[in-house]
């Protein structure tokens, strides 16, 4: 049997930014049907405005206002990368091959000079990973994504490290430069969207002796309160001082969450956060098409940009 269902492929329709914006109400319903009720209108609007100029939708034949499947794509200037993510299929339409059909269509749409690193941005679950692997994706073990949270009154991250000096920034220019260096991706559009979010804070870490930039972080008000951090970049020593700073500048009480890049037991960021009081919510996998290396200085990639604001 062929991996791909011809009928399923015929149902996958390309859409541009404006069409995705119009589809937000049905995307909210789709996400809720998949158990992701925290993806409300503002979260979808952020995702689409932050860098998504193209996507694919599967509509219900009997009601065009109902979306049965979606997949978003972002292109990053100045790097050979295409990001594919937010692949959702309604429970009522599963078993039809729609997920595979959307992924095949999206991969085939990427220009040859971008096919080197199409990236599923660290959001593959244990259930979804086997499908991606059949399509040619390979898990990158050291790039595992660990979703974590901590109650603010538990976190001890504000303890200063004398080797690091922290400063608050009034713009995203410096952290944008750091983000490009670390990820290899031009995410300035998404960073601007985050910086425009109510209560957004940006902090930079410098070596206390040399003044060299060794880390950076951004925090925003999370959905329903609390603090969401992302991106978080830099040397491991800068992580807790940065988190302590953006936490102190954030709204009220509640939880703090981020998606840490790493695996438990390797002495890296995940272990440091657990020691500081963070709890693990979920462990996901990061994958690249045909196993190509991720761009940028990934050893400095400590925490993902968090697209859904909590």
From TrEMBL:
SUPFAM superfamilies: Acyl-CoA N-acyltransferases (Nat)
PROSITE patterns: GNAT
Gene Ontology molecular function, alphabetical: acyltransferase activity, transferring groups other than amino-acyl groups
InterPro entries documented for this protein: Acyl/Acetyltrans_Enzymes, Acyl_CoA_acyltransferase, GNAT_dom
Pfam families membership: Acetyltransf_1
Origin: domain of life: Eukaryota
Residues of the N-acetyltransferase domain: 14-156
Protein name, entry field: N-acetyltransferase domain-containing protein
Native source species: Triparma strigata
């Amino acid at each position: 049997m062929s991996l791909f269902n011809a009928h399923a492929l015929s149902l996958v329709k390309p859409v541009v930014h404006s069409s995705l914006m119009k589809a937000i109400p049905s995307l909210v319903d789709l996400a809720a049907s998949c158990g992701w009720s925290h993806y409300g209108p503002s979260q979808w609007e952020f995702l689409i405005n932050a860098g998504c100029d193209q996507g694919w939708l599967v509509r219900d034949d009997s009601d065009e206002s109902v979306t049965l499947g979606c997949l978003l794509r972002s292109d990053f200037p100045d790097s050979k990368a295409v990001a594919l993510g937010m692949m959702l299929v309604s429970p009522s339409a599963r078993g039809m091959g729609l997920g595979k059909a959307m992924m095949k269509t999206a991969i085939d749409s990427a220009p040859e000079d971008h096919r080197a690193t199409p990236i599923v941005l660290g959001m593959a679950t244990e259930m979804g990973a086997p499908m991606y692997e059949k399509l040619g994706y390979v898990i990158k073990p050291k790039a595992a994504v660990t979703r974590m949270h901590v109650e603010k009154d538990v976190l001890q991250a504000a303890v200063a490290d004398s080797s690091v000096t922290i400063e608050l920034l009034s713009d995203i220019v410096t952290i944008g430069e750091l983000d490009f260096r670390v990820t290899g991706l031009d995410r300035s559009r998404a960073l601007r969207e985050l910086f425009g979010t109510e209560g957004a804070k940006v902090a930079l870490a410098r070596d206390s002796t040399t003044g060299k930039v060794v880390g950076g972080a951004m925090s925003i008000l999370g959905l329903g309160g609390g603090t969401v951090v992302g991106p978080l970049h830099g040397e491991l020593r800068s992580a807790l001082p940065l988190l302590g700073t953006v936490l102190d500048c954030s709204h009220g009480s509640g939880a703090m969450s981020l998606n840490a890049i790493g695996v438990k037991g390797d002495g890296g960021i995940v272990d440091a956060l657990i020691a500081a009081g963070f709890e693990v919510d979920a462990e996901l996998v990061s994958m690249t098409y045909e196993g190509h290396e991720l761009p940028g200085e990934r050893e400095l990639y400590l925490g993902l940009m968090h697209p859904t604001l909590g």
